[in-house]
Amino acid sequence: MTLTCQIIGAPVQTGASQPGCLMGPAAFRTAGLPDTLTELGWQVDDLGDVTLPDLAPVAHGNKALKNLAEMIEWTRLLSAAAYEAAKTCDRPIFIGGDHSMAAGTVSGVAKHAAEQGRPLFVLWLDAHPDLHTLDSTTSGNLHGTPVAYYTGQPGFDQFPPVAAAVDPKNICMMGIRSVDPAERQRIAELGLTVHDMRSIDERGIVGPLAEFLTKVQAANGMLHVSLDVDFLDPSIAPAVGTTVPGGATFREAHLIMEMLHDSDLVTSLDLVELNPFLDERGRTAKLMTDLTASLFGRRVLDRMTRSYA
Fold first, then answer.
1. Angle CA(123)–CA(283)–CA(45) in degrees, nearest 5?
2. Catalytic option among 70, 73, 228, 279
3. Which CATH number fits domain 4-295: 3.40.800.10, 3.40.50.2000, 3.40.50.150, 3.60.15.10?
4. 262 labelled catalytic
5. Beta-bridge mates of residue 222
6. Per the residue annotation, which of 73, 98, 99, 252 is the catalytic one?
7. Residue 307: what pLDDT?
8. For all residues of the chain together, what is the average pLDDT?
9. Is 230 a known active-site residue?
């Protein structure tokens, strides 16, 4: 049976500090993402980009917030699009676009998972935990808030209600290396699993990821992967406005994707924070496309698939 994949573009840049992420979806397509997945045997349907209407500003007590009305509407539109895609294909991919888009994509697929009677798990591959609320952010850049939103934290009253909040204990963060004090406190309170880069240096990738995948399978969970360009070391992926030295290497990133493919647990995927304006001859877009290919089944040699039972 041919597996189906829908690609939905989210040209969101209102959550980031630097312009350019709105070109991300086009860069992924130029890098050959749809054709690559087709060559791997998937039936690919590119649904184009979600578009944002003109909006009136929305007021908030935190005067640092930027583009609040836009994020609220992106969240509404992308949640609806993600919900429909999750219902109608085997594995939707949401290509962005800054990471604020995950407020919509994750909440949408979480609603679908809840209707299936299954828990949603999230593998968050990022330099940042993005756990600020609208009140705690001091930068006002809303790509730092999606995890707080989709886990149902307070302070998002102006946003669409979360139909099915993700249990924080179902989230595994890897690659974290830039955490604000308010986020550090919230991580401890919520009980998220966080493997920062020191943990990865000490333990490697395989053990922590295998533990998480075993947990997903034991719960009959659905697994959403949210891959931020800044998860990767900027020496191999420069096209991001939030570069943090010391990120994942080429091989670490591919190993994660290969393990995810072997697990056969992934049900949806974000590719975010690609800013082509900051890229070097398209190298980051090509790398992200290659990583996606590893997740979707590209391999050098056939080998035994590991069981997570």
1. 60
2. 228
3. 3.40.800.10
4. no
5. 120
6. 99
7. 53
8. 95
9. yes
Other C-beta atoms within 10 Å of 91: how many? 19
254 tagged catalytic: no
The pLDDT tens digits for 265-295 are: 999 999 999 999 999 999 999 999 999 999 9
Q: Yes or no: say if 137 and 145 are a contact pair by the CB < 8 Å rule.
A: yes
Phi, psi of 57 (to 5 degrees): -60, 150
Question: Is 99 one of the annotated active-site residues of the chain?
Answer: yes
Question: How does residue 300 score in pLDDT terms, banded at 50, 70 and 90?
Answer: low
pTM for the structure as a whole: 0.96
**Torsion of the alpha carbons at 276, 277, 282 and 284, rounded to the nearest 10:** -60
Tens digits of residue pLDDT in 124-161: 999 999 999 999 999 999 999 999 999 999 999 999 99
Distance CA 50, CA 77 (A): 7
143 is known as an active-site residue: yes
The catalytically annotated residue of 49, 73, 98, 230 is 230
Domain range list for the chain:
4-295
Q: Which of 130, 183, 233, 290 is catalytic?
A: 130
Q: What is the Rg, in whole angstroms, of the alpha carbon atoms belonging to the chain?
A: 18
Residue type, 118: R
Catalytic site includes residue 98: no
Mean pLDDT along residues 200-229:
97
End-to-end alpha carbon distance in the chain = 24
List 143, 224, 254, 261, catalytic entry: 143
